[in-house]
Structure prediction request, 150 residues.
Amino acid sequence: MSNLEQLIIDLKLSMERRMDGLHEQIAGVDQRLEERIAGVDQRLQEQINDVRSNLEHLVLDLKDSLERQIVTSEEATRQGLHEAVVEFRARYDNQSGRLDRHAALWQTGRRWSAKMDDWAQKIDSALAVKDREIGELRDRIQKLEREPRS
Prediction:
C-alpha cells in the first residue's frame, strides 16, 4: 500500500472516529435537550396549574363580590321602593284629606244652595201673593174712588 492509500485509510478512520464522537455528542445533546424540554414542560405545567388556581380564586372572589353587590343592591332597591311607597301613601293621604274637605264643602254648599232656592221660592211666592193682594186692593180703592159718594 502506498502512502496515499494509507493516508486515505487513516483519514477515513479519523473521520469515522470523529463521526462517532459527533454521534455521541449529538446523542448527549439530544438527551440534554429532552431533559431540558421535560423540565420546561414540568415548569410550564406547574405555572399553568398556578394560573388555573389563581383564575379559580379570582372567579370565586368575583362571584362572592357580585353576590354581595346584588344583595346590597336588592336591599337598597327594596328600601328605596319602601320609601317611595311611604311617600306616595303620605301624598295620597294628604290629597285624600283635601278631596274629603272639598267634598264636604261642596256638599255643604249644595245644601245651602238648595235651602236658598227653597227660601227664594217661598219669598217669590209670598211676594207674588202680596203683589196680587196689593193689586186687588188698588183695584178696590180705584173702584171705590170712582163710585159716587152718596
Summary: The mean pLDDT is 90.
